[in-house]
Each structure stands twice: as C-alpha cells, then as structure tokens.
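Figure S7 source data.
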Amino acid sequence: MSLPALVVHGGAGDIPSQEHPEYIVGCRAAFEAGWTLLEQGASALDAVEAAVRSMEDNPIFDAGVGSVLNSVGEIELDAIIMDGATLGLGAVAAVRGIANPVTLARRIMENTSHSVLVGSGARRYAEQIGLRLCSQAELTVPREVTRYREHQQAAEAQKDGRAQAIFDTVGAVAVDRAGNVAAATSTGGIAFKLPGRVGDSPLVGSGAYADNWSGAASATGYGELIMRVVLSKAATDFLAAGLTAQAAAERAIQVLHERVGGEGGIIVVDRNGGVGFAHNTPHMAVARRTADGQIEVRIRIP
Ligand code: GLY
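Tokens for the predicted glycine complex:
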C-alpha cells in the first residue's frame, strides 16, 4: 500500500461481450486522467472528478453522453462528489441537458451553501456558473435509442412499464499524497425509469462516501436496493472496523445480496492506499494500478 491510490469503475452488470474492448479503453483513459493528476500532486477530489468526467464524455458508459433513456425517451442524470477531509459533498439529481454532472456537483459543494440540487434548479445553476449545457440530442447515442425502442415494445406487449436494470454507473475513489480521500459517482440511472426517478448514485452514503478517518467507496448496481443498505457508507464502516479495502468491498456486496437480494458492485480505497473491489453481477469494469506500476483493467473479477 502506498499513496497516492486510485480505483475507477465503469459499472457492474451484464456487459455485452462486444462492448468489452470499449469498456477497457474507457476505464483505462479515465484512470490515466485521474492518475496523471495524482502523480503531479493534485488532490483526490481533482483526481476523481477528472476520472469521472472522462467516462461522462465517453459514450460507451451510462453517464453523461451515452446515458440510458427514461420512459419518455429523455436523459436525466444523477451524480455526487464527496470530500473525505471535510465530509463536504455536492450532488445533483434528475438534471437534464448538461454534459458533466460530476463537475456541477463539485461546484455546488464548493461554491454554494447547499449540498444537493435537483432537476431544473440544478440546470439553472449550471447555466448560471457557465458550465457546458447541451441538448438531449447531444447526449443521446443510437445504441440507447435502439434499447429504448426495445423497452417500449416489451412494455406494450406485457403492459408493463418497469425500468430495466442496466448498471453502467461510473465512479472513482482516490487518496492523495496528503492522505485526503474522495469519491465520485455519476450515472444516467436505469433504462426506462420513470421521469423524476432518482437512484442511489447521488444519495450520500449510497452511491458514494468518503471520510479521511476510514476511506472512500463508490457503488454501482440496482439503485433501489443499494439505497436500502446505504452501500458505500457500509463499506467505509467496514474499513473503520478494521477490515482491509478488499474485505470491506466483499462484505458490503455480501450485505447487499443477503439482506435485500441486490445486485451491484463497489470500489473501495482505504486511507493508507489499500484498494478493493467486488461485485455479484456477471461483470464489473474496474481499473487500478498494480504493485509493479501497471494499469490493470478488468471486466470480470473472479
Ligand atoms: N446505480 C444507478 C442507479 O440505480 O441509478
């Protein structure tokens, strides 16, 4: 274990095999974006924001551009960032028409007296501070239009409009040279969700948590169940109780599975630079640095 440390995830779920190469390239690029900053002495907050922005800008992931469509064919985004030094956080929920919700979340944390902004108020604040706004069309990719039509047909056939569990949320956790930890998570949520639905990602303790006394965690998976066990806070509580980062990640996923039957994944960093990750879905895309300094990206973790 050594400082700094960074782990990045591109979501847990059943990632189609033809998309694995793009996930690997995208997670590697996100890791490099964060790691370059950490090596230059930047803060953990800067690193997790940069890593998550990289994935928001990459249309392969369900975050920012390329996000899933809701039941009326629109994109609503959730994101959170948390500073383990102060326990300060910023989050946005169900916001439309911005490219980088993680940056909006950080600006809310640092420049306002609030923690969470939602919907049109979040977008209005983004516009006010000059963040890049975009149309629904600019965020939408053909893959998700096809998926939306499939969901529409299935809903009509079954008279069932339930959202589909696509778990491609992205996230990053880091500890910098000064020993400060941070976490960030961003998502388009689950496909065919009802307009206004908010998942676990922007909920503090569920989608992410960071505390210099223990470490940081970022979760991915089916939000309605993740929020019941406050998954990321559970993982950092396991760190505080003395578990390693790997054991804390595994234990958190065990709780998710055994207590509420949830599916998902989590990445964890402890305050000393130990890292861990676990999932109970078929795949999870994770990037980290190995002991010999190589960037390792995995889609399936044994
Ligand atoms: N974990 C992402 C969501 O459920 O919205």
